[in-house]
Each structure stands twice: as C-alpha cells, then as structure tokens.
Amino acid sequence: MNARQRDGKLMKRNGVETFIYFINFFGRGIHVHIRLVVVLLVCGILAVTWASGARIADASPGEKPNKPDDQPERKSPSFKTDVMPILKDACANCHAGRKKKGRVDLSTYDTVMKSVKANDPDKSRLVRSVTGNGAKLMPPKTGLSNAQVKIIREWISAGAKND
Asked: 52: domain range?
C-alpha cells in the first residue's frame, strides 16, 4: 500500500517517499533475496532430476530409457513400398513383359527372387548388376543412385521378404 499512518491520520506517500522506501527495503534484505534465488534454483534442479528419474524408473527392466535424441529403430526396406518402385522405374522397360533382355524378369517378387540370394547381397545377381561389380552395370550408362542401391542391399540383407 502507498499509505501510512502519522498521528492517527492516514497519509499517502509521494513518489520520493515510495522510492526511498523501496531502496531501504532492497538495501536491508539483499541477503534474503540471494538466499531466495539460491533456494529456487536448487528446487528447480531437484524437480528436473526427479522428473528424469521418474522416466528411468518407468522403463521396464533391461530396457533403455527413451532419450529425446534417440532415433527410432530403422525398419528394413519393404519389397512393395521401397524395392519394387525402384525396379519398376529403372528396370521394367527392359526386364519385364514379353521381351525380357537377358531372360531376366524383374516384374514380380517371384521373378526378382531368381536374381537374389536372401541375406547375402554380395552373392546376388541383382546387386552385382546394379553396382557393376562382376556384372554389366544396370541400367546401362547411368546405373542406380547410391541411395537406391543401399535400399536394395538392405532389403536383401534383411532376408528379401515379400512384404
């Protein structure tokens, strides 16, 4: 309040008196304010530590707690959504339909599996062809991008499943 009593009368403080009052208030209690800040900081640190501990305690035994910077486990590529679109775009013009160059058909899962050794991409004819290692580079001249080759290799390494 900006009011005080003097001689039984209620009087208002002017601006100078209010300023002096606040200077005296902060001048007297600076140690109290420092203590208050320290106590609040300690309480904040304890709250954050407690919240982190609660997340760790909620994790089941043997399971790592989720950290915000952890990335979800990466799934292996799917034939239908990842591999087949690559083969259709890059290979189907020559290796599907009635005229299959080199008698290689890459139009269905079953025919693709004739060129794939599951779990062993280095022994798969498909990988050797798209990388140009031990076979003619396919597609001719341009080949596939590194990202596309990686998807095919990962799919074969994961068992070359029809999913």
From this structure: 3-58
Residues 88 and 51 in one domain: no
The predicted structure's pLDDT at residue 149:
93
Separation between Cα atoms, residue 78 and residue 105, nearest integer Å: 19
Spatial separation of the C-alpha atoms in residues 51 and 26, rounded to whole Å: 35
Compute the distance between CA of residue 132 and CA of residue 89 in angstroms, rounded to an integer: 18
Give residue 2's pLDDT. 46
Q: Which amino acid is at 115?
A: S
CA-nearest of 16, 15, 19, 17 to 6 is: 17
For residues 60 and 66, give the distance between their C-alpha atoms in angstroms, rounded to a whole number: 11
Tens of pLDDT, residue by residue over 90-104, are 998 899 888 888 889
Confidence class for position 114, pLDDT limits 50, 70, 90: very high
Same domain, 150 and 90: yes
Give yes or no: residues 53 and 92 share one domain.
Answer: no
Model confidence over 117-143: pLDDT tens digits?
A: 999 999 999 999 999 888 889 998 888
